[in-house]
Each structure stands twice: as structure tokens, then as C-alpha cells.
Amino acid sequence: MVWFMLVAGLVLLIIGADVLVRGAARLAAAFGVPALVIGLTVVAFGTSAPELAVSVKSSFAGQAELAIANVVGSNIFNVLFILGLSALVAPLVVSQQLIRQDVPIMVGLSALVVLMTLDGMIGRLEALVLVTGLLLYTVFLFYQGRKNNAAEADAGSDAEPAAPLWQNLLLVVGGLALLVLGSRWLVDSAVSIAASFGVSEAVIGLTIIAAGTSLPEVMTSVMATLKGERDIAVGNVVGSNVFNILCVLGVSGLVSPQPLVAGEQLSGIDIPVMLAVAALCLPLFFTGALLHRSEGAVFLLLYLAYVGYMVTLATASPYNGLLLQIISFGLLPLVGLFVLLTLAHDLRQRRNA
């Protein structure tokens, strides 16, 4: 029954996020919000809504460490697994705006989380800083979108026929209801499973829940890649990671009756990994403004190594030390060499062009 609730909770989260995005996008269009802002805010929020629902539910249920672990695990999963998988399907185009603006913002916010959790927690004041950043970021995107709105209007759009206001509101309310119910089933069942196997909340949040709540991003990015809209695949991941930090951590920290907890493993391993993964995007995105299949394979390999380390650490496996040595002295140096060779190859091509 517990496993059934886990799967059912994931299904409800996916359906709820899809319904919420559809209704919110129609409402935004009806009120004349620029299309660019809809894409960068409504879609990013919609695909991050499962993380928000789960983290808020976790904070109220007294599982304060699960709230941060869910965000950290989702951000790592988004970059390494989703972008890696999408790049294997087809090389991903990375826009100049993402390279110059959105990816540095993602890296900066990841560094901010590292600083905030040095004391092992995120309090209400720090959460307020994140929510304030969310408001400023949204206003900035709206201002940026207004400049492009006239060009979009001239080019025309294939917008859906206008639906009655009550239908759009019903979609939003229905999507939120599904997210709330799905998050309750997912969190309760996942914690029960973790307890039965003796696994900590942090590990279950970094793996099962993080992957489950990121399923909307998986579907959005892979489908965008298959349809040839490869820039959307990257933008969806970067935008979702920014919203996970600003919105999910910020709102969860504000409504939680106690500070969000970042235990020794989260603050010492997983959050720095989130920062390193975000920083890895900068040099690889910069090279030719493309994420090639080989780079996607590297992302997937890193994710498998990370999950493998988490599992051996949680189960106190005797192979944990050996795996850590392989990652530290084998895999990571090879990835560093790969990045340097990729940058050198790109520089050589630019000089010959």
C-alpha cells in the first residue's frame, strides 16, 4: 500500500503540474502578460510546483531536512540527468541570454545557499531574502519581456482560443489541489519507506523524491528536444533551478514553524555538489553555445556516480570508501581534463574562423 501511495503521489504531482501550468498560462495571456514572461515564470513555476508542494508539506510535517534535500536533489537531477539525457537525444542549443544572464544567476544563487547553510539551517530571515529575490527576479523578467513584447506581437502567435475565465480558474485550483494531495501521499509514503530501510530523510529526499518531483522537467525538456525546440530544454532546467532556490526554499522557510535543517551531509556534501554542478554549466555552455552528446554523457556519468555514492553512504556499504576514491582521483580529474580540452578546442575553432 505504501508503494502504491508513492507511485500515485508522483502521478498526481505530474498531472497537477500540467493542469496548473495550462490554467496559469491562459490566465496570464488573458491579462496581457508578455509571452516571454509566461515562459520564464509560469512554466518554470509550474514545473517547480511539485518541489514546492513537497517541501512545504515536509516543513509543516516536521521533516525540515527533507525540504532542503528535495530542492538540492532536484537541482542536481535537473542539470546532470535531464540535460544529459536531452543532449544524448540531440545536441542542445544554448542561447546567449542563458550564457550571459540566467546560468550565472543560477550559479550565484547556488553559492548563496552554500553560505546560508554554513550554520546548518535556513531561518525565516534568510527565507525572506530568497522570497524578495524571487519578486525582484520576476519583476526583472517582466521588464525584460515588455521590451520584446512588441516584436512578438508583430510576429504573431499561435495562441489557444480564449477560454472563459471560470475554466482557467478551475484549472488553477484543480492543479493546486492535485499537487497538495500528491505531495502528501508522496512525502508520507517516502518517509515510511525510508524508515523501514533505515535510510535518512536527506537521502530519500535527494534521490527518490528529487527525481519524482522533477518528472515535469524531464517530460518538458525531452519533448522540447524531440520537437526541435532545444533551447527550451535548457531554459526550462535553468529557470526551474532558479525558482527551486528562490521560491521553494524561500516559501518553505517562511511558512515552516521551525528553521529548515541542513544536516552535516547536506551542508558538507550535497549543497556544494549542487554548486559545482551549476558551475560546470558555464564552461560547457560557453563552448559553441551547444551541449554536445559527449557532454551529455559526462553529465549522466556524473549523476550515476553521485547516486551510487549516496546509496553506498546511506547503506554503510564497505565499497563506499573505494567508490569515493574512484570518483575523487579518477572521475573528477578526467572530467576536469575533458572540460579543459573542450575549451581549448572551442578556442582553436574561434581563432581559425
UniProtKB/TrEMBL annotation:
The keyword Nucleus does not apply. Residues 2-142, 169-310 form the Sodium/calcium exchanger membrane region domain. Its main location: membrane. Gene3D superfamilies: NCX, central ion-binding region. It is a multi-pass membrane protein. It comes from the Bacteria. The chain crosses the membrane at residues 33-54, 66-92, 125-145, 165-187, 232-251, 271-291, 298-316, 322-344. This is Calcium/sodium antiporter. The lineage of its organism: Bacteria, Pseudomonadati, Pseudomonadota, Gammaproteobacteria, Oceanospirillales.
